[in-house]
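A reminder from the course coordinator: this example appears on the midterm review sheet, so study it carefully.

Given structure:
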């Protein structure tokens, strides 16, 4: 069963109101965070390829590599599957990421069908592809599919934000944060947006860039 889909900023605002009433910490955080972004993107091959490109590189580097892939026409599955090692290296992809990109292109994922399956099945389908871990699959479900009740507890910024906001002695593990987030259902992806925004605010106050 597919739950609520976030289509608009009004959906985000509805989730914020629910979370603020449910959890006092979110009520404290929201006035500091300003307006939260919608953060929706088009689903499909390109969204996942962009996530692979961005793994373990800076935002600027990821943008530069993506721009080269676009200029070479390599952001479509057919083109990626047929691309040579030389072409992918010229675009800035490492050997490993080139392999992941081809694996994704050859995986035969029915991206349209993913829109209509439960969150857990989305994640299972995507993590079967080399180079796509649980974090990437959950981020795809949140922002490409708009799932309202998906969280990404493996995200270090979410872990650190939870530590600061909830006054924890240490950064919670993936397992611990996943358990905490159960209380934020059915708006866990909005809770993630709040925590990401709070992380930026808190780090700026500490003078950390």
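Designed residues:
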């Amino acid at each position: 069963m597919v739950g609520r889909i976030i289509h608009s900023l009004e959906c985000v605002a509805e989730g914020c109101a629910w979370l603020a009433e449910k959890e006092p910490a979110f009520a404290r955080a929201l006035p500091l965070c300003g307006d939260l972004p919608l953060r929706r993107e088009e689903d499909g091959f390109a969204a996942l390829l962009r996530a692979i490109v961005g793994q373990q590189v800076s935002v600027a580097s990821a943008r530069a590599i993506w721009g080269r892939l676009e200029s070479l026409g390599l952001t479509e599955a057919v083109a990626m599957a047929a691309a040579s090692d030389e072409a992918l290296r010229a675009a800035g992809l490492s050997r490993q990421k080139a392999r992941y990109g081809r694996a994704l292109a050859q995986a035969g994922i029915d991206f349209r069908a993913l829109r209509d399956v439960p969150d857990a099945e989305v994640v299972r389908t995507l993590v079967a592809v080399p180079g796509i871990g649980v974090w990437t699959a959950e981020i795809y479900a949140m922002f490409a599919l708009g799932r309202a009740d998906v969280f990404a507890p493996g995200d270090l910024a979410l872990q650190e934000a939870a530590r600061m906001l909830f006054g924890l002695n240490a950064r919670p593990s993936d397992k611990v944060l996943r358990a905490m987030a159960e209380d934020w259902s059915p708006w866990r992806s909005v809770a993630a947006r709040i925590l990401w925004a709070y992380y930026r605010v808190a780090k700026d106050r500490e003078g950390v860039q």
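The two ends are 41 Å apart (CA to CA). The chain has a mean pLDDT of 93.
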